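Practice problem: predict the structure.
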Amino acid sequence: MPDQDDGPRLRLPDGFQIPGQRSSGSEVRSSRTAATTTLAGLGVAALVVWKFKAVILIALGKLKFILGGLKLLSIGQLFATFGTMLASIWVYADTLGFPFAVGLVVMIYVHELGHLYMATREGLPVGAPIFIPFIGAFIALRRQPTSRAQDALIGIGGPLFGTLGGVAVLLVALALGEGYWARLLTAVASVAFVLNTFNLFPVPPLDGGHIFGAVSPRLFVAGLVALAGLVLWRASFGRLDPVLPFFLVLGFVRGVGQWGAPGYHQVAAHTRFRFTLAYLGLVAFLTLMTGFTLV
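Answer:
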């Protein structure tokens, strides 16, 4: 039980190792068993996919946005995506355990698919999603958006898909009821909600910075103040990590330079209202679901 002076922590369900904490022998064996079970499950899934590949390909034919995104990625880009995914899983598994690391990376991937889908929908060519441990992942736009509204639409796609992914995982956990896998999936869903909430900070390059660019680019100042407050709050508990200051500095640099060419910022009033409503709705829902999964 951590002291209150140790600052706020993400409370994973019972049976999960706190990052950085050493495991007992039985816990290590349990983690290895879970990892073996997961790998076996992935192997069975791969065999099923191979056996029914024709049916699956027909089904995927209905998902035009997935195929549209995949057409933009070469074999080398796909290897880059899945290679960096595996590298991230390996890094996270060292402290979080293999099953949880897989779930975390998959949730990040679902988030990036939201950006990929929205960019493809807008006709913008994109690069492959690239994963960076402890930072997350990103996709590179090969052509920049032509308006703030288009930029905001691509930005909101990530949190929207990430939220839906977290809800889907939570529903599976609730259906399972009790047990290891139910607790694991609940923890994965909880982290998905937390990460997508953080991404909605109105600070570029976070998604919230892109969304609020369609409302008022000057609101990034409020986002910087809020993020700076979060950094100081965590530092007061002796929990200063490099990730938040990194986003704070990058947000300041990107925010100052985000005013583009004439006409780029001209967004209709009804479009601003819709993005504001969508943003506030996502924040409210994610806050509710985070509280639900952490109780």
